[in-house]
Design a protein that fits this description.
Elements: H1 6-19, E1 43-49, E2 52-57, E3 68-72, E4 75-78, E5 82-87, E6 91-96, E7 99-105, E8 109-113, E9 118-123, E10 127-133, E11 142-149, H2 152-162, H3 168-175, E12 178-183, E13 189-195, E14 200-210, E15 216-228, E16 232-235, E17 239-241, E18 246-252, E19 261-269, E20 275-280, E21 289-292, E22 295-300, E23 306-308, H4 318-329, E24 334-338, E25 346-351, E26 360-370, E27 376-388, H5 399-404, H6 407-416, H7 419-428, H8 431-440, H9 443-452, H10 455-464, H11 467-479, H12 483-492, H13 495-504, H14 508-518, H15 520-533, H16 535-543, H17 547-559, H18 564-573, H19 576-588, H20 592-599, H21 604-613, H22 616-622, H23 628-633, E28 644-651, E29 660-668, E30 677-683, E31 686-693, E32 701-708, E33 714-722, E34 737-744, E35 751-755, E36 761-763, E37 768-776, E38 785-791, E39 794-801, E40 809-816, E41 822-830, E42 845-853, H24 857-884
Parallel strand pairs: 2-15, 5-20, 9-15, 17-27, 36-42
Antiparallel strand pairs: 1-2, 1-7, 3-10, 4-9, 5-8, 6-7, 10-13, 11-12, 11-14, 14-15, 16-18, 18-25, 19-24, 19-26, 20-21, 21-22, 22-23, 26-27, 28-29, 29-32, 30-31, 30-33, 33-34, 35-37, 37-40, 38-39, 38-41, 41-42
Helix pairs in contact: 1-2, 2-3, 6-8, 7-9, 8-10, 9-11, 10-12, 11-12, 12-14, 13-15, 14-15, 14-17, 15-16, 15-17, 17-18, 17-19, 18-20, 19-21
């Protein structure tokens, strides 16, 4: 960054004289204008801050009477003619932070030509003569000469504070200054000599300061005193032919710098060496701007601050200075050069010249900045150089003459021309001659010319150069940021030549990347040829290319006739990581058909490596495009398919003529979710039922329930088939069936009866309890049925049994009273009405033989016998009582 410059600082101090008229105000309060005639007042600008005042004396173009300070001694620097223009308001009043500020000027427009043509710069130890040239009217006046060690920023801030109503900064500067009491002579002048002892930027003021009762500062004149740190010896040619550089050698009388120097040199065409400083304002900060030859020196901003050069001092750099000096003095009238920051105390700079610059006398300015001293100018030099018009060259040789001249002469001639001129000739001469010239010319020249020639001519030259020469030119072109031009040339070259050249150069990946961007199809043809010539080297090049470029390139190669095999060959040879990344990008680009054709030519191992590295989504995207051959080469476990497998058939019991629930469990052991699918239950080759299942996630199972009723007892084959119509593409189509054999059985009750044991013989007329035991020996419960007891076909009684569980029994009691004697058959019958369906309908009865006999006589006649006994007893009793009486 360049924060201080002697000449710019001089112009800056001069422009400050005009800035005071604006007062850096925000807004005019009363907007009234007060005219102060120069004849009625020496001070043309008055700034009132409450009860304090700063007053600026008028200046005129008459050096002897104009209130100017003239320096002598030291080294003279020729100044450009300087015109100062003010165009603005003549008064303003405003209030800033409670402070009343009034600025009054004797004019609102003024033009002043600065009367001094030189300015002095000094080194430590020089004697400075300071002469104040005032008007006759100041003769005998007692004033103060102040020498202030300051900087442009400090001076700007002091004035800025003053016009904001704060005079503290400017008072401190004056209080800390070297002060000399001066009494003006009879002509209003005063001279003072001082020997400078330290380098720096100084401001010289002629003032009159009154502190009581109110502070008044009268400023009569001001100038800059620049004391340089070091002297330097500059050697430069006194004259230079236009088109050649002005070489400036600089030796600084100083030690090497630990923080670094920056050297700068400038030539300015003397007739354009003039400055017009213009200050324009509408009385507000945003409406204020100071320019030098149209270049902004200071301008006000919307937030009420002033920025140096329109961007702020901290942003000024060598590029900004170069640009604005060219703008101020005319781009064709100046040449400027800077070094980077270096530690050396010597260097060289080259100031370029060209035909656009006028011939004549130029002012040479050389400056040195040092970072450790605050980036200030530490040495300065001014000199002169004359630019002369180059002699009229002889007529150029014709094309025929160039074709015929010795190759050394042809090369020398082409190299002496500008790039544009040389390119024009190389476009016209024969290709063979152009090739000869390129074989022999300097490499940097060859590179520049390739960049300038048409693509067609560049291609024809590179095609015919020796491989080594063409390789070197191409590599240097890439280094020189001509990759795009080389890529264009390679695309239209003969395919064999282009492929061979790219295989040779070390910058092949960079070139191919650019070629793919320009014309991927043409590049594909060239790369295909590179594979034929040297597949190993081609793969090395492709490994260093971006996957994005490779994806585009491979797609185009795959689209060429009969060339998907070439892409497959490259995918086989590329590193696994690169190959996989490229394939993924091809899928992203939607080139699924092309990729499937490439897959067909991959080895089984490489195919499965790449395919297995894809996401399931990517595998699924390309799956419909795969040929049956490719599909068969992919390991089943990698396919992005479901795999539906029935794992079990569960049936609780197969009972004839009773509905049975058959549960079939299906699991998805594949890689992706399955859409809805069907499952059929087939019994003995007859489809019983087909059920549609919902989607089945990976590694999930579902249970489907079928209903089947066996019609007869026996062994049945139950077969469950998943996806019976093959609507779902699966990893394994051979695991969709499960078979289970089941035996059906009849489930019925089976009633048997028995009669409990009876006495050997039964007596007539006696009641007997006959116990009939009914058992259910079947495998099902017997619902309500009756049990009957008969004797010789006659019913003794019937009992109702509500239910008899399988395997249980029940005892029923019947009462029977035989009435006649004889042998009889008792028969118990279970379910005599055949209401219960049984396993065996023939075992429902039980019979026993019983004998019924008459009872003994005493059993028959015992009532009569008792009666007789009673009569006898009564008789005996009666006789006893009769005898007694």
């Amino acid at each position: 960054m360049f924060k201080k410059n002697s000449l710019l600082f001089t112009f800056f101090i001069l422009s400050l004289t005009f800035l005071v008229i604006i007062g850096m105000t925000d807004t005019l309060i009363n907007g009234s204008y007060v005219s102060l005639s120069s004849s009625s007042s020496l001070f043309v600008v008055n700034v009132s801050v409450n009860n304090e005042k700063i007053m600026f004396a008028d200046h005129s173009e008459d050096l002897a009477e104009g209130n100017w300070i003239v320096l002598s001694g030291g080294t003279s620097v020729v100044l450009p003619p300087i015109k100062l223009i003010y165009n603005g308001v003549s008064s303003a009043s405003y209030v800033r932070d409670g402070t009343n500020i009034t600025i009054q000027s004797a004019f609102n427009y003024r033009v002043l030509n600065y009367p001094l043509t030189t300015h002095q710069v000094y080194n430590v130890g020089d004697t400075v003569t300071i002469t104040f040239l005032g008007p006759f009217g100041l003769a005998g006046k007692n004033l103060t000469l102040c020498i202030i060690n300051t900087s442009p920023i400090e001076a700007r801030d002091a004035l800025n504070d003053a016009f904001k109503g704060n005079l503290t900064t400017i008072k401190n500067l004056i209080n800390n200054a070297i002060k000399v009491n001066m009494t003006l002579n009879s002509t209003g002048d005063f001279s003072y000599n001082i020997t400078v002892s330290s380098p720096g930027d100084y401001v010289v003021l002629v003032i009159n300061e009154t502190k009581i009762p109110n502070y008044i500062l009268e400023i009569y004149s001001a100038t800059l005193l620049e004391v340089l740190d070091y002297s330097m010896i500059v050697s430069a040619p006194s004259s230079v032919t236009i088109g050649n550089p002005v070489n400036v050698n600089i030796n600084l009388n100083a030690p090497q710098s630990s923080t670094g120097y920056r050297y700068g040199a400038l030539i300015i065409y003397e007739p354009s060496y003039m400055v017009e400083i213009k200050l324009e304002t509408n009385g507000t900060v945003p409406g204020t701007i100071a320019t030098g030859n149209g270049v902004v020196l200071i301008n006000g901003t919307a937030n009420r601050v002033f920025k140096i050069a329109g961007i702020g001092l901290e942003k000024i750099n060598k590029e900004f200075i170069s640009q604005n000096i060219g703008k101020a003095f005319g781009a064709n009238n100046v040449s400027i050069s800077f070094t980077d920051i270096i530690n050396s105390n010597s260097t060289s700079l080259s100031l370029m010249t060209d035909a656009s610059m006028p011939a004549g006398k130029y002012i040479l300015l050389v400056g040195v900045w040092e970072t450790q001293t605050g980036r200030r100018v530490v040495s300065f030099y001014q000199g002169y150089v004359i630019l002369t018009t180059p002699p009229t060259p002889p007529p150029p040789p014709t094309i025929e003459e160039i074709e015929a001249m010795p190759i050394e002469k042809a090369v020398e001639y082409i190299q002496s021309l500008s790039i544009t001129e040389a390119s024009s000739i190389l476009e016209k001469i024969s290709v063979s001659r152009a090739v000869e010239i390129f074989e022999s010319m300097a490499m940097d020249r060859a590179v520049n010319l390739i960049g300038s020639l048409s693509v067609e001519r560049g291609a024809s030259i590179l095609e015919n150069l020796s491989m080594e020469r063409a390789k070197n030119i191409v590599e240097n072109c890439v280094i020189s940021n001509l990759t795009s031009k080389v890529a264009e040339i390679a695309i239209i070259m003969n395919v064999d030549k282009s492929a061979s050249l790219i295989l040779e150069v070390t910058v092949a990946p960079t070139i191919l990347e650019t070629m793919v961007e320009m014309n991927s199809r043409a590049t594909a043809i060239i790369v295909e040829r590179m594979v034929d010539l040297d597949v190993i080297r081609t793969v090395e090049i492709l490994e260093d290319m971006s996957p994005e470029s490779l994806a585009m390139l491979f797609i185009e190669i795959a689209r060429l006739p009969h060339t998907p095999e070439t892409v497959a060959k490259l995918l086989e040879a590329l590193s696994e990581e690169k190959a996989i990344e490229v394939v993924k990008l091809i899928i992203d680009l939607g080139a699924l058909k092309e990729l499937s054709e490439v897959f067909e030519h991959l080895s089984t191992e490489r195919l499965n490596l790449i395919y297995g590295s894809l996401t399931m989504k990517e595998r699924l995207e390309i799956l419909p495009y795969l040929s049956s051959t490719t599909f068969s080469k992919i390991y089943k476990e990698l396919l992005p398919l479901p795999d539906l497998k029935p794992t079990s058939i569960v049936i609780s019991e197969a009972i004839v003529e009773k509905p049975s629930i058959v549960n079939v469990t299906v699991v998805n052991i594949g890689n992706v979710d399955s859409p809805e699918f069907k499952v059929s239950l087939i019994v003995n080759n007859t489809v019983i039922q087909t059920i549609t299942s919902r989607d089945l996630l990976v590694n999930s199972e579902t249970v489907l329930s079928f209903e089947w009723t066996p019609l007869s007892e026996g062994i049945y084959e139950l077969k469950a088939i998943v996806d019976p119509e093959n609507n779902i593409m699966e990893i394994n189509e051979d695991n969709n069936i499960i078979i289970k054999y089941v035996t059906s059985k009849v489930v019925l009750p089976d009633l048997i009866v028995s009669i409990a044991k009876l006495p050997e013989s039964l007596e007539i007329g006696k009641e007997y309890n006959v116990s009939v035991i009914v058992k259910n020996i079947g495998n099902d419960d017997a619902k309500q049925f009756s049990v009957r007891l008969d004797f010789d076909g006659r019913t003794i009684g019937t009992k109702i049994v509500d239910v008899l569980l399988a395997g249980s029994e029940k005892s029923l009691s019947f009462t029977w009273k035989p009435e006649v004697d004889g042998t009889f058959t008792l028969k118990a019958i279970a379910d005599p009405d055949n209401k219960v369906k049984e396993l065996n309908e023939t075992n429902n009865t039980a019979e026993v033989k019983v004998t019924v006999v008459a009872p003994p006589w005493y059993v028959t006649y015992w009532p009569l016998i008792i009666l007789i006994i009673i009569i006898i007893v009564l008789y005996v009793v009666l006789r006893y009582w009769s005898k007694k009486s």
